Automatic annotation (TrEMBL):
SMART domains on file: TPR (SM00028)
InterPro entries: AAA_16, P-loop_NTPase, TPR-like_helical_dom_sf, TPR_rpt
Pfam families given in the database record: AAA_16 (PF13191)
Name the UniProt record assigns to this protein: AAA family ATPase
Domain Orc1-like AAA ATPase: 16-184
Organism: Streptomyces olindensis
Keywords: ATP-binding, Nucleotide-binding
């Protein structure tokens, strides 16, 4: 604080705010300096009444004076249950002012994803991905910032913002360096908990410098403000009492001084004792008494305004308060005169004909809390009906319905279920959860209760799998779920258990339901689900007879429906993992397709089977050298998730497996790029989960193939690529990749131990495919000097397994391993055979390695040069360096 008096243009509430105003001025100047300037974020924290709103108003004045576009919004204590409320206040006016075609053009692919959340587009008929919606809202700001530069966003009372807005705000704060936007946020300390508190903490962590905490006025500032308001003749004792009564709170000081003016109280020491009584009338019980003094109609009007909270208009309040239009207008004027309500002005950015808002959030809270409990509940019920009658839908009425006391109301249960569906469609599962939990309290009819529990379980699957488990178990334990609905609930419950790392319990749950069913399509579907979960289990004990049972079931399947197609995929993937003949694996997988495409109901965004089954199918093609089919499937997945706005775990896996396809093809640069795109998405979903392991394992494997050993080690260390390993299968085998990494950095003993652990785990599961679990070839090379006899046995076994599997890649890699253990003409012959097989393979990195190794063994300049060209094309910098070194050493024809 550098001055007692504020600048002439500043409001009274800006006394002793020079440093904060200067920070805003610097941030605005930086934003306006250049269109390419990075965004900025300022966060001001302070208790109620310390001038946060006034500081935002001054920020608006500063920004608009420099030609900025300024949009603002405010959180509301009674509006925290309204999803996207605050972000809609910010962005909706600008988008609504555009023609629909113009808004669609600006938002591009994000229109159908973010548009429903912003209230400018109709939601789709399926559950939206919350992370995708959040990313779409960030993209909307990025695109609008280019149109509206320089753009300033002001968010007041962020502690009362809805959770969905805070999710977006945290994501925006993290990406402001990508756009020219200044964001200024005010909040109270505390006030929130749970996810909202975490989001606000993330916003604070991203701010430009430490969060500024506003302090109360000093006695000198209170005296200066008092004299500036009442006149220089105010004596010192009166000024001191103003400060003592208000504790230096700027809002209380301004309100108290207004009361002094209204009451014609002489500002002298002799009258200072009356200040405390005046101050009590400004808030709390005193405010309520003052409100009651305006009459019953004005009180009802204020109560109705507090119930509505937002979108307050005289006409709407009149309906809720059951007032005639003329009486309502009279009450509005009375409340404006009493400084309880006001018309939003340019400083707030919320101007509309007939719009009203409370002068300060403290007043809104006091008025809301003054409504008798029973009446408040009844008014919320009336408000819900009015909102519905106005055509705003169940979701808009939901915040009022949540406040109504349970009363065995069947219609209310239906409204809340509909509101939950609308919330899910715009990407607000937590809001849907609140509606369904409230519906259960009503309560619903016994035959409906199980359905509501199922809907609640489905809603929470993306938020808290643990809650989903409880809800679905409860639903399955009561009447009301039959047929497909019950089977769907069991499948979803098993998915939640898998996501919660309870894979064995998922299998037991499906088995228990199977025991209840007679033979038929439902039982077949559940058996396929059980076999699917068993198939991805990485535990050391294989399910007895699983492979035989799959083979038996698959023999009778023609692929006539999705249950049969699922069994064929599972059988193909099981055969792949066991290293059975690749042609038979492909034949099984081909029988699941319809005209070469995924069957209806087996799409990437379908909910009947989930992503795991399709990943098995695509990986079966990828590792049997049918890379065209695998790439088509993985790219279809990315497109499907991007179109649907799914930017969470599903999109992370899709990008990861696009990287796998690039890695198999030998496009190592592209593989690394796809995997790095997947990495932040996987981290956002959560470290330690199977998809996170998939991304990290494949990134480390790709970096090793490129010869970037130090970078691979850094990634492994930074992201925890080390035991313990996940309970689900990860491809390629993480133990093998970890062992290969340890060997590459010179930790030979540790690398051998890791590869031997991979050997043990693979043997327990019967996973003998040398392409998917290539531990044996790496271990043979590592033991070539220390234990040549064991290395030779391993190489023979690798070749036997490769010939059983039968792909050119598998056989060529086995021959490379054998050649590495030999010398002289035998090494040359084996290396040449490896080149022949790998030249026919689609895996160009392995071909490059074989060609270079043959060139070295045969001292062939031509092969070294061709191998060098292949290595450079692949992005295999380590291989290329090796080939150049051999060429520079003078290798010549034998």
């Amino acid at each position: 604080m550098t001055e007692v008096r504020p600048t002439a243009a500043a409001s009274a509430s800006l006394w002793e705010r020079d440093e904060e105003v200067a920070a805003v001025t610097r941030a605005v100047d930086s934003l306006c300096a250049d269109r390419s300037s990075s965004g900025g974020l300022l966060v001001f924290r302070g208790e109620a009444g310390l001038g946060k709103t006034a500081l935002l108003a001054e920020s608006r004045r500063i920004a608009e004076a420099r030609g900025c576009t300024v949009w603002s919004a405010r959180g509301g204590e009674t509006l925290r249950s309204v999803p996207f409320n605050v972000v809609r206040q910010l962005l909706q006016p600008a988008l609504v002012s555009m023609l629909p075609e113009e808004a669609r053009e600006y938002l591009g692919d994000w229109y159908d994803i973010a548009g429903p959340a912003l209230g400018i587009a109709d939601p789709g008929d399926r559950q939206a991905d919350p992370q995708g919606v959040c990313d779409g809202l960030v993209a909307a700001v990025r695109r609008l910032s280019r149109r509206e530069w320089p753009l300033v966003l002001l968010i007041d009372d962020a502690h009362w913002a809805d959770q969905e807005t805070l999710h977006w705000l945290a994501a925006l704060a993290d990406r402001l360096d990508e756009m020219s936007v200044l964001v200024v946020v005010t909040r109270r300390p505390g006030e929130v908990s749970g996810a909202s508190a975490r989001f606000l903490d993330a916003v604070a962590a991203a701010a430009d410098g430490p969060v500024t905490t506003l302090s109360a006025l000093t006695p000198d500032a209170a005296a200066g403000l008092t004299r500036a308001t009442l006149g220089e003749h105010v004596d010192a004792a009166f000024c001191r009492e103003v400060w003592a009564v208000t504790a230096g709170n700027p809002y209380d000081t301004v309100e108290l001084l207004a009361k002094v003016q209204d009451s014609d109280l002489e500002p002298v020491e002799a009258r200072a004792g009356e200040l405390r009584e005046l101050n009590r009338s400004a808030r709390g019980g005193g405010l309520v008494a003052r409100l009651e003094g305006l009459g019953i109609d004005a009180t009802r009007f204020a109560w109705a305004a507090a119930i509505l909270g937002t979108g307050i208009s005289v006409d709407l309040v009149a309906k809720l308060a059951t007032l005639k239009p003329d009486d309502a207008r009279r009450c509005a004027e009375l409340l404006r005169t009493a400084r309880i309500l006001t018309a939003p002005g340019p400083a707030t950015g919320r101007t509309a004909d007939g719009a009203l808002e409370f002068v300060h959030p403290l007043i809104a809270t006091a008025v809301y809390n003054s409504i008798p409990d029973a009446l408040r509940t009844a008014m919320h019920g009336i408000a819900a009906r009015i909102v519905t009658d106005e055509g705003h839908g169940a979701a808009a009425a939901a915040r009022h319905l949540l406040e109504v006391h349970p009363d065995d109301d069947e219609e209310l249960v239906g409204q809340l279920r509909e509101a939950a569906r609308e919330h899910l469609a715009v990407g607000a599962p937590d809001a849907a959860r609140r509606c369904l939990e409230r519906a259960l309290e009503e309560p619903p009819r016994p035959d409906v209760r199980a359905q509501v529990l199922c809907e609640l379980g489905f809603a929470t699957l993306l938020i808290t799998p643990g809650r989903t488990i409880g809800h679905l178990r409860a639903a399955l334990g009561m009447p009301g779920l039959d047929g497909d609905d019950r089977v769907n609930a069991v499948v979803r419950l098993s998915q939640a258990l898998v996501h919660n790392d309870e894979l064995e319990e998922a299998v037991r749950t499906v088995e228990a339901e199977m025991a209840r069913l007679d033979p038929g399509p439902a039982r077949i579907r559940l058996e396929a689900v059980r076999l699917m979960w068993e198939g991805i289990h990485a535990d050391e004990v294989a399910s007895p007879g699983r492979s035989e049972r799959l083979a038996e079931l698959a023999r009778t399947c023609t692929g006539r429906d999705n249950s049969e197609r699922a069994l064929l995929i599972l059988r193909g993937f099981d055969a792949l993992m066991h290293g059975e003949n690749a042609e038979e694996v492909v034949e099984l997988c081909d029988r699941t397709l319809v005209n070469g495409r995924l069957a209806s109901g087996l799409g990437w965004t379908g909910t009947e089977w989930g992503i795991e089954l399709l990943l098995m199918l695509a990986n079966a093609y990828a590792y049997t050298d049918r890379l065209d089919r695998a790439e088509n499937l993985f790219n279809d997945a990315v497109r499907a998730y991007e179109i649907a706005g799914w930017t969470g775990g599903h999109l992370a896996l899709a990008h990861a497996y696009v990287g796998v396809a690039h890695r198999r093809r030998g496009r190592l640069r592209d593989a690394e790029q796809s995997l790095r795109e997947a990495l932040p998405l996987a981290e956002r979903v959560g470290r330690g989960l199977p998809l996170y392991w998939t991304v990290i394992c494949n990134l480390v494997d790709t970096l090793l193939a490129r010869g970037h050993v130090d970078e691979a080690w850094d990634v492994a260390e930074r992201y925890g690529f080390a035991p313990p390993y996940p309970s689900t299968i990860v491809l390629p085998d993480p133990r093998t990749v970890r062992g290969r990494l340890l060997l590459a950095v010179g930790r030979v003993k540790d690398g051998v131990n890791e590869l031997e652990a991979a050997e043990k785990a693979a043997a327990a599961r019967g996973h003998h495919n040398p392409v998917l679990v290539p531990w044996a070839a790496d271990l043979a090379r590592a033991l070539a000097t220390e234990d040549p006899a064991r290395a030779a046995r391993l190489a023979v076994d690798v070749r036997r397994q490769a010939e059983r599997f039968g792909t050119d890649t598998a056989i060529g890699e086995a021959l490379r391993c054998a050649a590495a253990l030999e010398t002289g003409q035998r090494a040359v012959r084996l290396a040449g055979q490896a080149v022949t097989y790998l030249e026919a393979s689609p895996c160009q990195y392995e071909h490059a390695a074989a060609r270079i190794e043959y060139g070295i063994a045969a001292r062939s300049v031509a092969d070294l040069r061709r191998g060098l060209d292949l290595a450079v094309s692949c992005g295999a910098d380590g291989l290329a360096a090796r080939a150049r070194a051999e060429l520079e050493s003078g290798a010549g024809p034998r």
